[in-house]
Amino acid sequence: MRTPAPAAPPSPRSVVARNKLMRTAERLYAEKGFANVSVRQISEAAGQRNNSAVQYHFNGRDELIKAILSSYTDVIEERRIAMVEALLGTERAVTREEHFACLILPGVEYHIEAAAPTWGARFFAQAIVEPALREYVIQEQLNTPSLRILNTHGAVRRKDFAPGLFQRYSAMVRQLSVHAFAELEYDLANGRIEQREAEARWRLLGQDLITSLCGLSSALLGEAGR
Amino acid sequence: MRTPAPAAPPSPRSVVARNKLMRTAERLYAEKGFANVSVRQISEAAGQRNNSAVQYHFNGRDELIKAILSSYTDVIEERRIAMVEALLGTERAVTREEHFACLILPGVEYHIEAAAPTWGARFFAQAIVEPALREYVIQEQLNTPSLRILNTHGAVRRKDFAPGLFQRYSAMVRQLSVHAFAELEYDLANGRIEQREAEARWRLLGQDLITSLCGLSSALLGEAGR
Question: What is the ipTM of this complex?
Answer without folding.
Answer: 0.90
